[in-house]
Design goal:
Blueprint: H1 2-16, E1 23-27, H2 33-41, E2 46-51, H3 54-62, E3 68-72, E4 85-91, H4 100-110, E5 111-122, H5 129-141, H6 150-153, H7 159-168, E6 171-185, H8 188-192, H9 201-207, H10 211-224, E7 233-246, H11 249-254
Parallel strand pairs: 1-2, 1-4, 2-3, 4-5
Antiparallel strand pairs: 5-7, 6-7
Helix pairs in contact: 1-2, 5-10
Length: about 260
């Protein structure tokens, strides 16, 4: 999934259309992809990325530009002052938070009145071509695999649930958009082998299979994906983005 995250981050930051010199919080920052794109595209005064994973934060720090800093902390309890930030963002992380509306409300607490709160998530149900085809192949071989399908588990990853989360956190001027990026593979092995890496729901499930069952899933997946004459594959990945503003005096003046 990391192959495509920077492409989505580029489109997301362009959609936000923020001026230079702002202060950003990147909540659930992972390895710092979105923070890096913010630094190159938005020229922030300051960006602070926050993630619970020490390993992710260490990786993010290793390539951080001077205006970007990273902290190990919980998205549900941000270690920042209220109304001290201009923008709070989250990339490909909202569906992993235990209570998305509470997490967005915490992001809103940190942002000044009139400030922006925005996020994007993968469309696991319909928009992730290679992931959708994997789970369809998996459930064909083993119907119990459906319980792990992110499209069923992460119901927040659709426009209306995202709007509801933003409204539930008290935000105004809420808008959503889709972001599609190409996911190209040099051959079928380039697509299928990462599913055996053992990290994440699909690879963990696949890695635990008996070799014969794993081959059956691989064959079902191979039959489901379109290939060019040279053996390469081209699919698409879609994310849904959402943004809204914190109400208050500054927001009222902006209107």
């Amino acid at each position: 999934m990391g192959r495509w995250s920077r492409l989505v981050a580029e489109e997301f930051t362009a959609w936000l259309h923020c001026p230079a010199g702002l202060r950003y919080l990147d909540v659930g920052c992972g390895t710092g992809v979105l923070s890096a794109v913010l630094a190159s595209r938005c020229h922030p005064r300051l960006t602070v990325g926050i993630d619970r994973s020490d390993a992710f934060v260490d990786a993010a720090r290793s390539a951080a530009p001077p205006s970007t800093h990273f902290v190990v902390a919980d998205a549900m309890s941000l270690p920042v002052r209220a109304e001290a930030w201009d923008v709070a963002v989250s990339g490909l992380a909202l569906n992993f938070f235990p209570a998305p509306t509470a997490a967005v409300a915490e992001m809103a607490r940190a942002v000044r009145p009139g400030g922006l709160i925005a996020a994007y998530v993968w469309d696991y149900a319909d928009g992730m071509g290679f992931v959708r085809r994997f789970w369809d192949a998996a459930t064909e071989v083993d119907p119990s695999a459906a319980a792990l399908d992110e499209g069923r588990r992460f119901t927040v990853c659709r426009p209306e649930p995202l709007r509801a989360v933003w409204a539930g956190a008290g935000l105004v001027d809420v808008a959503t958009t889709s972001i599609e990026v190409p996911t190209d593979f040099v051959d079928f092995a380039d697509l299928s082998e990462p599913f055996l890496a053992g990290q994440g729901p699909a690879p963990s499930w696949a890695a635990a299979l008996a070799p014969a069952e794993r081959d059956r899933v691989r064959d079902a997946l191979g039959a489901a994906v379109p290939r060019r004459p040279d053996g390469s594959l081209s699919l698409t990945a879609r994310a849904w983005a959402v943004r809204g503003r914190k109400g208050g005096r500054a927001a009222d003046r902006r209107r």
